[in-house]
Design brief:
The complex is a heterodimer. By secondary structure, chain A is α/β, with parallel strands linked by helices. Chain A has two domains: about 190 residues, HUPs (Rossmann fold), CATH 3.40.50.620; about 50 residues, no CATH class. Helix content of chain A is about 35%, strand content about 10%. By secondary structure, chain B is α/β, with parallel strands linked by helices. In chain B, the strands form six sheets. In chain B, strands 2-3-1-4-5-6 form a six-stranded mixed β-sheet, with helices on both faces. In chain B, α10 packs across α16 and α12 packs parallel to α13. The radius of gyration of chain B is 32 Å and the shape is elongated. The chains are: A alpha/beta, B alpha/beta. At the A-B interface, α1, α2, α5 and α6 of A face α2, β2, α4, β7 and β8 of B.
């Protein structure tokens, strides 16, 4: 079995476990490349239909190209999309560094959605190779009543047997892409011909490697104007994927603080 | 294009680094990443800054120990995975914590690996935790192990010290049947024998760490072994029902005859369902997640095991296993918990803790409980039938976990499974004083279950009540179990989700069986919308089962609406209402169809009585009863 097939089969297994064991589920759609792959995998797992709502936590700060992409593919892929507005920046923890506060709006938006839709499971497209605290995650990661991540005491997870304890008010985060790498994602997008927001492709010497909000996400210098060129670029780069994400670099523990509080 | 970037690459080889806390696992990985050029620009400077902030020399381990608590306390709390590449291939390296408190995390990491690097401190030597990790590698089935004796710089690169540690660990590994692929003296901190041979240890002629890694073999594929496909779920659409799961071993093709355990019914694979493929899929092998359409609608559910039937599996209620326990509280005899094996979940009781194994010297002692992080031989007793392989034969279907309140609290590998002695004879013993035949002789008919399925308002209850009256008057033993009535009592705790409907049907079937055992003709009048649930009821009834489809158009039922339910469903007051907002799966081959659009109540009842007569009655009615 070749690696992309193995990665795909493992993700499909996880998505089907989530569907089988958790009644009220939703999938986060950040509109980035990873969550597009995740929706694609869900369509494969459930034979064409994504059987749960797909949620965009809308800060109103996405790029216009990103919104256009969302509206087109929500329709084309037949998604049951929820796109509620996130609470304003004033509602976030004022002790967080400024760039983190923009990201923290999503945490609040997610907390509101959990309550509003009485969700027990949130499927998110994070990967271990993106960021060092994400590398420590589980496929099925329990979150407490306040949505917090207790990284000090994560449940064991082995032999594809997952944590399903769901005390009232708590929820599980499900991470079906945890074992993929950035270049795996692009190789899969190429093989499966999965559409992505055009901002990933270089224009006038720059492209977005990681896509987030306007103001805290910056393009990298790149000539990679198509998927083949992106894959070659990634093979040779020595820059981290999230270098263009200002929120990660406010302080040593900025991202850990965000994640502990419930960020993806 | 560079072939390293092609679509068809082999999997990155997963390796785990284990050993006692502070023997240098994270440092070793940091050094390997550095030496293979896997670190992003600026990372080394960033680590230097982070180390200085804490008043430390340069700490490679901070590369992986990303959490604040890990950096502040200088220990690894949870596993990390990271990727690198040698000239030969790609790797995923898993850093496992060495601290006893985090053994559950070590297991989480090690279970994913095809091979392990066991790190031992040259000065401290083999410790209890080194042994515990090694023992767990053995239980996890990771037989490919290389040892690195680290911190050689701290013992002056002394050859004798190396040999004494090497001998000690080799002795232990040999007891477990593991032959280390290499034993390498290194200093992760100084970079000795990692990517290049150390000048400080001219006495060592063996491979470097990177050469050791490149010498590991990927775990062989399980495609050539017997077919094992644990069922994850069933998806129903209007036109079809598909069975989904991942093939753990073996392979299958469209047209193959497969067996479903427990029970052993045979069916054929009609198709492998896919989405967005140009050509239909005709075959699949180990590792693939598949969706099968079968040629018959048989009883199958999450936890069923699909096999080819060429090699038998254990089926029974008593499971003997070696357990590693990770729970907060000890595992004690008499304790109830969930045993999960592949996709099946069983309620079990700890029948006996046979012996607790001391991982230091392999000594055994008897004890009534297994402490946290302990290893023991345990016998479990289950009410449901466990289907398993022995771990030695087929690892993926010969292992599982123990869960307390949904929390994974331990793992086990299967030695054997056997039927519970006396289980099957119990029922015959109870029935033995009056046999089924004797009852039939007295009653003039056998007991049996007449299962009326159909939409609400189709006429199930009306027909059941009419038929009951006429049978009673003819002197028959007869009873009606009505779905609505059951929901007031026995099934009062159930709702209308597919799971609850399934349980509703199961309980009704179990009660019906008891009445049938006692000689009665039992009418069960229940919507029972799912084929699989009705098939389950047929199995529970054990062959004395008549499936009757009471058919009427939704429009007819809506017009009749005897309970006013369709009106409520139309306004959304009732959710998941069959025929309106929930599916009804028509029986493919019922024993009898009563079309109440066309037939009167009397006409339907006549036909039903004729079918009952033909199936269950052994003697014409003699007595005639009328109501007082």
């Amino acid at each position: 079995m070749q690696d992309l097939d193995w990665l795909e089969a493992q993700s499909i297994y996880i998505l089907r476990e989530a569907k089988s064991r958790i009644e009220r589920l939703a999938m986060l759609w950040s509109l980035g490349k990873d969550s597009n792959v995740m929706i694609w995998l869900a369509k494969k797992a459930f034979l064409g239909q994504v059987p749960f709502p797909v949620m965009h936590l809308d800060t109103g700060l996405e790029f216009p190209e990103t919104y256009a992409f969302r509206d087109r593919y929500a329709k084309e892929w037949g998604l049951n999309m929820i796109a509620d507005d996130c609470p304003p920046i004033e509602a976030t923890d004022p002790t967080l560094p400024p760039n983190s506060r923009i990201a923290a709006r999503k945490t609040l938006g997610l907390a509101e959605a959990l309550k509003k839709y009485e969700l027990q499971g949130i499927i998110a497209g994070i990967r271990r190779d993106e960021q060092a605290t994400r590398a420590k995650e589980r496929y099925f990661s329990p979150r407490g009543l306040d949505g917090a991540w207790d990284f000090r005491d994560q449940p064991p997870e082995f032999w594809d047997q997952y944590h399903f304890d769901l005390p009232p008010g708590a929820h599980l985060r499900i991470h079906p892409l945890l074992h993929w790498t950035e270049v795996d994602i692009w190789r899969y997008i190429r093989r499966e011909k999965i559409p992505v927001v055009p901002l990933y492709f270089a224009r006038e010497g720059k492209r977005f490697r990681s896509l987030g909000e306007i103001g805290i996400t910056f393009p990298i210098v790149s000539e990679a104007a198509n998927i083949d060129e992106i894959i070659v670029e990634l093979e040779h780069t020595r820059e981290p994927e999230r270098a263009g994400r200002a929120m990660d670099h406010d302080s040593e523990d900025a991202f850990e603080r965000l994640r502990v509080a419930g960020y993806m | 294009m560079d072939n390293r970037l092609a679509d068809n690459l082999v999997r990155a080889l997963p390796i785990v680094v284990v050993g006692h806390v502070d023997h240098g696992k994270s440092t070793l990985i940091g050094r390997v990443l550095h030496d293979t050029g896997s670190l992003p620009d600026g990372k080394v400077e960033q680590l230097r800054a982070v180390s200085q902030k804490r008043g430390l020399e340069f700490e490679w381990s901070f590369l992986l120990d990303a959490l604040q608590i890990e950096r502040d306390q200088g220990i690894t709390v949870d596993i990390t995975q990271t990727w690198f590449r040698t000239a030969l291939r790609r790797y995923v390296v898993i850093d496992a914590p060495g601290h006893t408190e985090f053994l559950k995390n070590m297991v989480t990491g090690a279970a994913k690996a095809d091979a392990a690097l066991l790190v031992v401190d040259a000065a401290q030597g083999v410790t209890e935790q080194t042994r515990r990790h090694t023992y767990l590698l053995h239980l996890l089935g990771i037989g490919q192990v290389a040892v690195v004796v680290n911190k050689m710089d701290a013992v002056g690169y002394d050859h004798g010290q190396f040999w004494s540690v090497a001998e000690d660990i080799t002795g232990y590994l040999t007891e477990l049947g593991i032959v280390p692929t290499a034993i390498v003296p290194i200093s992760a901190k100084q970079g000795d024998n990692i990517s290049t041979r150390s000048a400080a240890m001219g006495w060592y002629q063996g491979p470097t760490v990177l050469e050791v890694l490149d010498g590991f073999a990927p775990k062989p594929t399980a495609s050539e072994q017997s077919l094992r496909l644990p069922v994850q779920d069933l998806y129903r659409t209007e036109e079809k029902r598909v069975v989904v799961g991942r093939i753990e071993s073996g392979r299958l093709r469209v047209g193959d005859t497969i067996r479903i355990l427990p029970g052993g019914r045979s069916v054929r694979v009609a198709a492998i369902e896919t989405w967005n493929r140009d050509t239909p899929q005709i075959a699949a092998a180990a590792g693939e997640s598949v969706a099968l359409r079968l040629d018959e609608e048989v009883f199958i559910e999450r936890g069923s095991m699909i096999t080819s039937g060429d090699t038998p599996m254990y089926e029974g209620q008593k499971l003997r296993a070696r357990v590693f326990w990770l729970g907060r509280e000890p595992l004690a005899e008499g304790q109830r918990l969930k045993l999960r094996l592949a996709t099946a979940e069983h309620e079990v009781v700890v029948d006996a803790v046979e012996r607790v194994i001391d991982v230091a010297d392999f000594g055994h002692r008897s004890a009534a409980q297994v402490e946290r992080n302990g290893v023991a031989e345990v016998v479990f007793r289950s009410r449901s039938t466990i289907v398993a392989d022995s771990f030695a034969n087929l690892p993926t279907t010969g292992r599982g976990v123990l869960a307390v309140d949904g929390r994974v609290s331990g793992g086990f590998i299967v030695d054997s499974v056997e039927p519970l002695a006396g289980r099957s004879s119990n029922t015959t013993q109870v029935a033995a004083s009056v046999t089924v035949d004797e009852r039939a002789l007295v009653n003039g008919h056998r007991g049996g279950v007449i299962w009326l399925t159909g939409l609400s308002g189709a006429g199930k209850s009306t027909i059941a009540m009419a038929a009951q009256r006429r049978l009673f008057e003819a002197g028959r033993q007869v009873v009606v179990l009505d779905g609505d009535n059951l929901r007031h009592g026995l099934n009062g705790d159930l709702g209308f989700t597919p799971e609850d409907r399934k349980e509703n049907v199961r309980r009704a079937a179990e009660v019906a069986r008891l009445f049938a055992d006692a000689g009665s003709l039992v009418f069960v009048s229940l919507i029972s919308p799912y084929v699989a649930d009705r098939e389950g009821a047929r199995q529970i009834a054990g062959g004395r089962f008549l499936e009757v489809f009471v058919r009427a158009d939704v429009a007819t039922c809506q017009a009749r609406d005897p309970k006013g339910l369709y009106a409520k469903a139309a306004t959304g007051e009732i959710k998941q209402f069959t025929g309106v907002s929930a599916d009804y799966e028509r029986p493919a081959a019922p024993d009898l169809v009563l079309d109440t659009d066309a037939l009167t109540v009397e006409g339907s009842t006549d036909r039903l009585l004729a079918a009952i007569e033909a199936t269950f009655v052994t003697r014409a009615a003699t007595a005639t009863r009328t109501a007082a």
